[in-house]
Design brief:
Layout (H helix, E strand, L loop, with lengths): L2 H15 L7 H17 L1 H12 L3 H27 L2 E3 L8 E9 L2 E5 L7 H13 L2 E5 L5 H14 L5 E3 L4 H8 L5 E5 L2 H12 L5 E4 L5 E4 L5 H13 L11 E5 L3 H16 L15 H10 L5 E3 L3 E2 L4 E2 L2 E3 L17 E7 L2 H10 L5 E5 L3 H10 L4 E4 L20 E2 L4 H7 L1 E9 L14 H11 L1
Parallel strand pairs: 3-4, 3-6, 4-5, 6-7, 8-9, 8-15, 9-14, 13-14, 15-16
Antiparallel strand pairs: 1-2, 2-18, 7-17, 10-13, 11-12
Length: 459
């Protein structure tokens, strides 16, 4: 798509936004209900597209994509009117006889760039928040998940006018051309490398951004942890979607006294959840494409594999794999794995583990398995991370009642539920001053008595 054509789309959306149509909360509610109807009516098509792109099972497609999107819509429909209301705040005595209030207002024309690993969820979840806040939206899904991207384009264009919502498909050239345009807000989910480029391009227009990135999310297992439960939940979170989850546990950081017992439980859980031959399990997915398959395979050091390690180049599958005797200097610890490889590293003391984690780039998530209250308080207070769980993995993102986002190298800003509404809103601070009285203290000429009165009011 040419730059001029993109500019026309953006100009049409900006003209539509300035009509004030999206300011009406009833209009937003109708749009959310239309989106809800679209997803329910085409659930089977969405499921088929996810199967083509990622070999996701029907159950996983609903649990991790469609179901979460419908939950976000349901939550927003229940709360949108209260979120959109003006909020009165106290007025200081110096502004006597005024009403002070905060007014949520949409930014305008927004751009949402989404990734390939959860192509439905990570496209439609921020879209729901942007609609609820009253914006128009241009969606740019990933070229790496073509079945889902094409389906989203077809459905959005069928159910919504392009002057309100539209989808632009394509690859790097389309992303570059879009980022050269002037948007009122940009929401990006993806890699740190592309995130830096998004921020650089946005800065030329002083466009605010939300960046949802990733990082090496540690999974701490201390000496008090319930190892059977920990292994069960770690295996679920790590190998869901073949490890292609931004908040998957990237590596296990385990108390050295519990390592062998934990590894035994991890092996047992992998076999229990995926079978003795995971690559033959019809519910086990695949790596998105050849490029990522080869990248992950290069990280797979056969000398350190203690379980799994099987690959099938024809189906782009890699079995759930455990690696031992890994150090922080190994290649696998220099980048986010984003695949079904799970290194196990040990620590001597919890303070040592905390210091090591804080010496690395801030992760998107952190997980701690512990029964000790003091350890839970220490780790959650001292470690820097975007969000996480105690005695579980990844489920902190599956709720509209808390914001989800990173910090530092793992991103900025958050969304889901009220946080998502606020992300796509600018809150105006307004003082409505009454006209029936006008105190003369602030006006010249300034006299000593006026300063005395001012000190009494302002302290």
């Amino acid at each position: 798509m040419e730059n001029t054509e993109m500019k026309k789309i953006i100009d049409r959306q900006r003209a539509f936004f300035h009509t004030g149509t999206t300011l009406d909360v009833s209009f937003r509610i109708a749009a959310l209900k239309r989106l809800q109807h679209m997803i329910r009516r085409h659930e089977k098509e969405i499921e088929a597209a996810l199967l083509l792109d990622l070999k996701k099972s029907s159950f996983e497609s609903y649990m991790c994509e469609t179901g979460l999107v419908l939950d976000e819509i349901h939550y927003m429909l229940r709360h949108i009117r209260s979120f959109a209301k003006e909020q009165d705040v106290r007025t200081p005595l110096a502004q006597f006889c005024s009403r002070s209030y905060r007014k949520p207002s949409p930014y305008g024309v927004t751009l949402i760039i989404s990734p390939w690993n959860y192509p439905i969820l990570l496209t439609l979840d921020p879209l729901i928040d942007a609609i609820a806040a009253g914006n128009t939206v241009i969606l740019k899904p990933s070229a790496y998940s073509p079945a889902c991207s094409d389906l989203l384009a077809k459905l959005i264009h069928r159910y919504f006018p392009a002057k309100y919502l539209t989808v632009i498909t394509g690859g790097r050239s389309e992303n570059t051309a879009l980022l050269e345009q002037h948007f009122d807000y940009i929401f990006f989910t993806g890699s740190k490398t592309v995130g830096r480029e998004v921020m650089r391009q946005a800065s030329s227009h002083l466009t605010p951004v939300t960046l949802e990135l990733g990082g090496k999310s540690p999974c701490l297992v201390d000496e008090s942890a319930d190892l059977a439960l920990a292994a069960r939940r770690i295996v679920f979170g790590k190998f869901l979607n073949c490890g292609q989850t931004c908040v998957a546990p990237d590596y296990i950081y385990c108390d050295e006294k519990r390592k062998e017992a934990l590894i035994c439980e991890l092996k047992r859980q992998i076999t229990k959840q995926f079978g003795s031959e995971p690559l033959k399990n019809p519910s086990y997915g695949k790596i998105i494409n050849q490029k990522h398959f080869e990248r992950i395979r290069r990280l797979l050091n056969p000398e350190k594999v203690i379980f799994g390690g099987n690959v099938n180049p024809d189906t782009l599958q890699i079995a759930p794999t455990l690696l031992d005797h890994v150090t922080f200097e190994d290649a696998i610890m220099q980048e986010e794995i984003f695949g079904p490889l799970l290194p196990v590293i040990t620590y001597c003391t919890l303070d040592e583990a905390i210091a090591r984690i804080n010496s690395m780039e801030c992760p998107l998530a952190l997980y701690l398995f512990s029964k000790k209250k003091e350890n839970i308080e220490k780790v959650t207070a001292k470690c820097q991370f975007g969000g996480g769980c105690v005695n579980d993995t990844i489920i902190h993102l599956a709720t509209p009642y808390m914001g989800f986002g990173g910090c530092g190298e793992s991103g900025m800003g958050s969304y889901h539920g009220k946080d998502g509404f606020e992300t796509f809103s600018h809150t105006k601070s307004i003082v409505d001053k009454k006209t029936w009285i006008d105190l003369p203290v602030r006006y010249q000429p300034y006299r000593p008595v006026k300063k005395w009165l001012l000190k009494k009011v302002l302290g």
